[in-house]
Structures are given as C-alpha cells and as structure tokens.
Amino acid sequence: MVGLNLFAFFLSGICASLLVALTSLLGIEWIKHKQRIKRQDLMRKRGEYFNLHGGQLLTDMMNIENNISFKLYDREEIELATKGFDKMSIIGEGGQGTVFKGYNLDQVHNPVAIKKCKGFDENSRTEFTQELLILSRVNHENIVKLIGCCLQFEVPVLVYEFVPNKTLHYLIHSQNDPSIRTLEIRLKVAAESAEAFSYLHSLDHPILHGDVKSMNILLSNNFIAKVSDFGCSKIRAADGHDDVVKGKIGYLDPEYLLKFELTDKSDVYSFGVILLELLTRRTPLSKQKVSLASVFQEAMKEGLFLELIDTEILHEDNMGLIGDLASLACQCLAMTSESRPTMSMIAEELRRIEKQVQQHPGVLTSISSLSQPASSAADTSEHFTGETNRYDSLRRVAAMSIEFAR
C-alpha cells in the first residue's frame, strides 16, 4: 500500500513537472511569437519610413551615380551609436532637430554628429532626396561634411562629421578668455566662413543656407571654421520662391520678409550681422528686442560707431581696420539685395584685410572696402543717407521681423 502511494506520488510529480515544462515551453513559444510579430511590425514600419522618406529613390540615384561616398545606415547602427538616443548624448538642439554625439559607426572610434530631424513633409521627399545627394557632394574644408543618413525612423536621421570645439557664438558671447578671441582669430573665422558660403553659392546647383548665424559656425582645432546645419538650406529652384519664413530673429533679411524669396543675398545679409557680432560682441537682438543691425547702422550715420566696438579689439593702431570691417558689415546689411556684395567679394576682402594684418602686425593701416573707401565714419554713412522710398519701406519691414520670424 505504501509502495502504491509512493508510486502515485512519484507519478503525480512527473505529471506536474511535465505540465510545468509544457507550460513553460508554450510560454517561451508565445513570447517568441510575440517577438517575431514585433520584429515583423518593426521591419514593416522601417520599410514604410524608408519609402516615405524617399529611400528607394535615393538608392536608385546612388546606383546611377556610383561614385558618391554617401552611406545609408541601418536603424540598429544609429541606435547603437547614440545608445538609443540617450539624452546624455545630446550636444545640440534647434528648430530643425536634435543633435547627438555618436560612436563606432563603420567600426571606427571617431565620433560623429547624428541629427534627428524634427519633422518631414512627404510631399517634398523628391526635393529632399535630391538635396541629400547634392549635399553629399559638398566637399570644402570649412563646411561640416554630410557622411550619410538613416531613413528607417519616423523622421530622417542625418550623420555628419563631428567638430570637437564649440560655436562661434560661444567664442564671442560666452567664453571668458580674451586671448583666444583676438582680432586676428575673429578675422580668420570670418574669412573662412565667408569662403564656405561663397563655395556653396558657386556650385552648379547653388545651395542657399537660409539660416546663417554664429551658432551655425562651429570651430574645429586651431579655430578652423566649419559651417554647419543645413536644416534650412534650400537648393535654388527656377523661381526661387518659398512661402515659409526661415532663419532666426536678428539675422533675417528684411527683403526676404517682404518677398518670401530666398537668395544668396539673404545669406549675405545674415553674414553681415555675424560681422557685427565679431566687431561688437553684442547679440543680434537685445533683451529689449532692439536690432543690433539697426543700432549699428544708425551709429554709422551719426559717426558714432566706435562707441559700439568691443573694447578688446579697439586700439589706437587699428582704427582704420575697424572702419573697414564696419563698412563691409554695413554693405552686407544694405536694405536692397542689389546693393550688397557677393560672398566671394566678402571673402576676398576679408582675406585681404587678414593678409595686411599678418604682413604688418602691430601696424594696421586702412584698406579700401569693396565699393568705396572707408577713410572715415562720415564717408561710410553716405551709403545710408541716399536711400529711396523703397529703403524706408524695407526698414519698416525689418522692424516687423520679430512678429513674423520664428
């Protein structure tokens, strides 16, 4: 009887173990089934995102032009590089997206900058795809290189060259060491940036940046300027029109606000504001929402612009040079685009000034500006006193920029 009970107990234990094992097996298979469904759903979504963002069109274009050194990354590579877009990896945020510092893409240890865009218009995917290809061909030492992209997320993810130091905006307005903010360094960064924009404007398919500001000029080792963030860039179309305001308050071209037409001279105007930042170390827009460009132009007319110049660079032996730079900035800020110089002219003038400084350190003499001598503030102010009614109209539009700019 005891033996029978032991046998029954042993048999029930085996049955219970088998039941537990079977339940566990079924549970594991259910989990695997759910994971397969999840993976299939993820793969389906990846394919949908890829096609939605013009991935197939981009692939076809890349196959036709097989000499393009541009890579399409898989979602896993981007997630691994950013640790799942960890907030600790964020190195920048703006109106067009969030930038993360990423590692180990392509099995290399050099970091990259991974930009997750904030939105995408599927109606413009053909233009977006064409623009990606054109930007991938951009090759200039003073422009941040676009390495590749991933189109398997809800929004496009762009992979750029990583620039180790901070921005020109930080150098001008935030850091506290005047020894790395000398006039020579400021001139160097300005000249290299102007050359980068000149290069973009001179391409077979000219690229208009559309968001020129000191925050979009990065500084690499030895203060090498690197123009970045083509989130607002626009390849020049036949009509050149665009009905969406782009750019940042304080940098916006008043003529663009009037016509909603982005041109190379829109970038020139914004670059003129950067030159004012370099000269004055003031922000483009004060806390009272007063435009630096308007204040400086008024000071030029009154012959009082030296009162606005940063004391770190204002010395008796460089008054002529300061006058030339002020004149150049004001020419960039002319209310009508026809009155503004081209970026190539600006770059040439800045290099000429920089060369003069290098040849005669400590003895800085006046250099002629692009369209007129800048021997005095009074001479320079003549550029502003002979304007027409159109000038006055555009100045009113400039004052309205705060209302319309994002």
Automatic annotation (TrEMBL):
GO terms for molecular function: ATP binding; protein serine/threonine kinase activity. Gene3D superfamilies: Phosphorylase Kinase, domain 1 (3.30.200.20), Transferase(Phosphotransferase) domain 1 (1.10.510.10). The chain crosses the membrane at residues 6-31. InterPro entries: Kinase-like_dom_sf (IPR011009), Prot_kinase_dom (IPR000719), Ser/Thr_kinase_AS (IPR008271), WAK-like (IPR045274). SMART domains: S_TKc (SM00220). It holds the Pfam family Pkinase. Residues 85-363 form the Protein kinase domain. The keyword GTP-binding does not apply. GO terms for biological process: cell surface receptor signaling pathway. GO terms for cellular component: plasma membrane. Keywords: ATP-binding, Membrane, Nucleotide-binding, Transmembrane, Transmembrane helix. This is Protein kinase domain-containing protein. It comes from Oryza glumipatula. The lineage of its organism: Eukaryota, Viridiplantae, Streptophyta, Embryophyta, Tracheophyta.
